[in-house]
Every structure is written in structure tokens, then in C-alpha cells.
Amino acid sequence: MSRVVLRLVEQLARGFMALSEIALVLMMLAITADVAMRALFNSPIRGTYDAVGILLCISALFAIAHVIFTRHEVVIDLIDTVLPPKATGFLKRFWASISVVVLSYIVWAMVQPMAEARAYGDRSLELGLPLWYVWVAALVGVGGALLGALGAVVAPTTRLETDRKSLEESGE
């Protein structure tokens, strides 16, 4: 059962990472096209500011699930070299548990501003999109990160470390 759940979390994290990458490419294309249109025809693309902001939200928040689940956070391995592997595994699970607590709080803290944006009818500056849509995307991204952190808590540390070493050897 836990293998099935871990597999689902892994697929979710990969899917979120793919969406993050797509959002990043679209953001770069939008900025490039806007700058080119402004320079060549003195006619910027309307809505680029809003689109880039929304895509940035998706690009940043949807990548977190994959980063946490695969344990690719930025770390300084000072203690890992001195501790035995079991203690290192405990520390990895402990910090993943802390991530679960922090991300749970962030999800909880995001609900009220999302509800207020919907209740008051807040809209984006250029496109006039309801801002609560952006809040939903952000909430989904952080919720995915929360699931990734839960997966990192229960996943065997050796499997994830093996995956990480193979990625480092392949140059990804």
C-alpha cells in the first residue's frame, strides 16, 4: 500500500515539475515576445505583466513538490559526513517532517486571502482576471509541495539517495 502511495506522490511531483517547466518556458517566451514587439513595433503585448506574474507563481510553487520529494533542497553537508547513515536518515526524515508542518501552516494561511480575493472581486491589473484564480494555482502548488514533503517523510531514504546519485552522475 505505501509503495502505491509513494508511486502516486512521485508521479504527482513529476507532473508538477513538468507544469513548472512549461510555465517557465511560457514566461520566457512572453517576455521575449513583449520586448521584441516593444522594440520593433513600439507596441507591447497587452497583459504580459499579468501573464508573467501568474506563470512565475506556477513555475516557482509547482517545482517545490519535486524538490522536496527527491530531497534536492539546498543543503550544507557538514553533519552528514560525521554521523552514521541511520542518524543521517533520521535527520532527513526530521527535516521533511518540519517541512510538512511549515507547508501545512502556509496552506492554512493562504485560504483566507484567497477567500477575500474572491469575496471582494479582486482582479489583475491588465487582463482583469479574478485574482482568486491565481490563489487557487498557488494553493495547488503549495498543496503539492505538502504531499511531496509527506512522501519524503515516509519514503525510504536509501531509494531517494540512489535516485539522487544516479541523477548527479548523469549530469542532470
Please summarize what this structure is.
The chain has 5 helices and no strands. It has helices at residues 2-41, 48-69, 85-120, 131-154, 157-170.
Q: Give the structural class.
A: mainly alpha
Task: Give the overall form.
Answer: elongated
Radius of gyration: 19 Å
- How far apart are the first and last residues' alpha carbons, in Å? 30 Å
Helix and strand run:
HHHHH
Total domains, how many?
Answer: 1
Number of beta-strand segments = 0
Quaternary organisation of the protein chains: single chain
Largest sheet features:
none
Mean pLDDT: 91
Percent in helix: over 70%
Indicate the proportion of strand residues: under 5%
Tally of individual helices: 5
pLDDT < 50 runs, ≥5 residues: none
Task: Name a few traits of the molecule.
mainly alpha; 172 residues; elongated; single chain
Detail the topology: elements first, then pairings.
Layout: H1 2-41, H2 48-69, H3 85-120, H4 131-154, H5 157-170
Organism: Thioclava dalianensis
Subcellular location: Cell inner membrane
Protein name: TRAP transporter small permease protein
Q: Can you walk through the features of this model?
A:
By secondary structure, the chain is mostly helical. It has one domain (2-170). It contains 5 helices and no strands.
